[in-house]
Amino acid sequence: MANPQDFRGKWALVTGASAGIGTALARELASHGANLILTARRAERLEALAAELRGRGVDVRIVVADLNDPIAPQQIFDATEGAGLTVDIVINNAGLGQYSAFHESPIEQEMSQIRVNCEAVVRVARLFIAPMVKRRRGWMLVVASTASFQPVPYLSTYAATKAFDRIFALGIAAEVARFGIKVTALCPGTTESEFFEVARAGRFKRRSIQSAEEVARQAIAALARGQRTIIPYFNGRFTALLVRFLPVTLITHVIERAARPRTGEA
Ligand SMILES: NC(=O)c1ccc[n+]([C@@H]2O[C@H](COP(=O)([O-])OP(=O)(O)OC[C@H]3O[C@@H](n4cnc5c(N)ncnc54)[C@H](OP(=O)(O)O)[C@@H]3O)[C@@H](O)[C@H]2O)c1
Q1: How many domains does the chain have?
Q2: What is the pTM of this model?
Q3: Residue 265, in any domain of the structure
C-alpha cells in the first residue's frame, strides 16, 4: 500500500497523543479515516482530542498511561489488541528531553528519558508487532530525531536515546519487511511542540521551526509507502548528510560550544 487513504477504517495507536507531534499525527491519521487509540498521561487533553476526532467521523478510544512504568505498555496492549481491537498502525511517539549540564542534571529526568524514549518503545513494539506478523500486515512509526545522527552535548542522554530509536527502527524494519510490515524512523528537526518547555531548552526554539502538522503529514505519507527513514525538514536532511563526512569529534566540539548553558541557565 502506498497511500495513506489505505489507513481508512484501521485502528492506529498513538503514544504521546496529548501534545505536539503526537496530536498532529493523530489528526493526520484521522484525516485519512483511521480510528484512533490515544494514550498519554493527561486524560483531559486526550478527551478533548477524542471529541474533536469523533466529530470527524472516526472511532476513538483513550488509554491513560504513564510510560515511566514498565507495566504501562502491557496495560495499553490489554485494553486494545488484547480486548479484541486489531491494531494495524502503531505510532511510537511519546518522548521527552532534558537540557542540562549532565553532572548537574536530575538523575530521575535522565532515567525517565531512557524509560520513555527507549524501554517503552521496545515494549510497545514487541507487544504489537507479534500479532502484526501473524496477520502479515502492519505499520509502525518510531519517532527518533535529527539528534540521532550525532552526539548533542547538554542533551547527551536525549540524543543517545534518539540514536537508539532510529537504529532500533531500522533493524526491526529489516526483520519484519518479509512479513509485509512497514517500519519507519521519523527524524524531525526543531518542531513546534511542548518539547522545549519540558526539556527547559527554550533557547533552541529557532525561528525556522517546522510545524507539527507538516511533520505529521510527511511522516504518515512516508509510513504508508514504507519509507525506512523520513527527515521532514530540509536543514535536517542537510546536516544528516554533512555529519557523514565530518569527524564526529569536530561536530561534537562545535555543538558543545554552541549549546553550553550560559551562567544560571541550566
Ligand atoms: N519538538 C521537536 O523539536 C522534536 C524534534 C525531534 C524529535 N522529537 C520527538 O517527538 C516526539 C514527540 O515530542 P513533542 O515534540 O511532540 O513533545 P511534547 O509536545 O512535549 O509531547 C510529548 C508527548 O509525550 C508524552 N509523554 C511524555 N512523557 C510521558 C510518559 N511518561 N508517559 C506517557 N506519555 C508521555 C506527553 O504526554 P503527557 O505529558 O500527557 O504524558 C506528550 O503527549 C518525542 O519522541 C520527541 O523526542 C521532537
Answers
A1: 1
A2: 0.97
A3: no
Confidence of residue 208 (pLDDT cuts 50, 70, 90): low
Render pLDDT for 7-17 as a digit per residue (tens, 0 to 9).
Answer: 999 999 999 99
Burial (Cβ within 10 Å: 0-12, 13-18, ≥19) of residue 7 = buried
Q: Is residue 264 part of a domain?
A: no
Cα gap 204→212, rounded to integer Å: 16
Is 26 within the bounds of a domain? yes
186: helix, coil or strand? Answer: strand
Which residue's CA is the nearest one to ligand 1's atom 46? 95
Catalytic residue list contains 233? no
With the most atoms of ligand 1 within 8 angstroms of its CB, the residue from 36, 96, 230 to mutate is: 96
Q: What's 117's domain CATH number?
A: 3.40.50.720
Q: What is the pLDDT of residues 9-50, one digit of tens each?
A: 999 999 999 999 999 999 999 999 999 999 999 999 999 999
Query: Which of 13, 14, 21 to probe ligand 1 with, by most ligand atoms within 8 A of CB?
Result: 21
Q: What pLDDT is attached to residue 236?
A: 86
pLDDT digits (tens, 9 = 90+) for 84-105: 999 999 999 999 999 999 999 9
Residue 243 inside a domain? The answer is yes
